[in-house]
Specification:
single chain, 4-stranded mixed sheet, 308 residues, 9 helices
Length: 308
Amino acid sequence: MADSKPPLPLKPIPMKDRISLIAIQYGQIDVLDSSFVVIDQSGIRTHIPVGSVACIMLEPGTRVSHSAIKLAAQVGTLLVWVGEAGVRLYASGQPGGARSDKLLYQAKLALDDSLRIKVVRKMYEVRFGERAPERRSVEQLRGIEGSRVRETYKLLAKQYGLKWQNRKYNPKDWDSGDLPNKCLSTATSCLYGITEAAILAAGYAPAIGFIHTGKPLSFVYDIADLFKFDTVVPAAFSIAAKNPLNAERQVRLACRDIFRETKLLYKIIPMIEKVLAAGEISPPLPAPESVFPAIPIEKGIGEDGHRS
């Protein structure tokens, strides 16, 4: 009898080569031949090449096996547990984890006020296409940014013929929001999903933000805001203006198409490196007494933060 060979190690695909996101609802997820297989209520099986997807949004009615969670972690695919149509984010499964050098670099930039303001000013410049006002604190820049964002919402709402009062989102009472706010929340949830996947794949920590702070996804909000008004916000307002049935689902599908057409996954990780480089420091070197891994980690084709 021929000797059995061990399975080949899984090689995570780079983020830029992946599908941005898919959503699964009312199905049981298991693993077959190194792929996700989703069994729906009718017993129909659908195969999903999990390693080629950046983020999978799990909607209500979905059950996931232990082997599926393990496979997602190995190939660096982020699983996000969301509400119906992706309108609430309940939890996420970290697919890779921050590398210590990247994490220390990010933390040093965030903890040093003189470095943090440089990163915040770069984010302001990227977002608004102009240099940030001189001699302003992070708090002052946040106030200026908030005012400009509110004005942008008003202009876009007027452009699409929508009645707009303000940005309103209550995760405990979804129905309290009007249709434009519901569409906007759905769209930003999609953007946050693939942004978090890219941050984790690059080896950074979603919680260590520069403008936003105190939340598990603070850095996700920082980076997603750099792309939001060029991608998902116009799509959300456009669909809200049409007032279709299943508006939230239409928004999610539109976001998926926009991410593919704009090649957003090509842009997120380079943007992370660009804004952090504004701090003008190098990643800290390991301490002289540090012990390196006894078994070196093989270099794969994926990003630095992938576990396998």
